[in-house]
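Check out one such.
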Amino acid sequence: MDSISIKVPVTVKAKLTEKLKEHLINDFTKTVEQLELEIKQIEIDRQRELTSNPEQAGRISQFFGNEIAQRRQRISEANVRKETVEKLAIGAEITQGTLERQVELKIGDNMREIMNVEVLIEDDKIVAIRG
């Protein structure tokens, strides 16, 4: 066998523009607002359950308390990410995720070159493919 076809990851990075920065900050703000609404609804549900099942107060409080704690943790994470984006300079490159590409490997290929591929986007347009 002289060759093999494999899938390899491709890192997708975005060049930070005012438009992208504003979009990311708005997304984090909306996430926090949504999670805060969920917490309010969970508190309403907890109170309703406590009223209808007072004998289960410990389990009910623990269950709903865990749900609220999870959302508060996600709020904290979103706020940290928002603050990080706010501090970034325009033009900074931020990782957006990964994709996969199909590659035909042949004997003698440089594996480092095959594995280290990035796509750079700016305002939703590909501006560079680096290898």
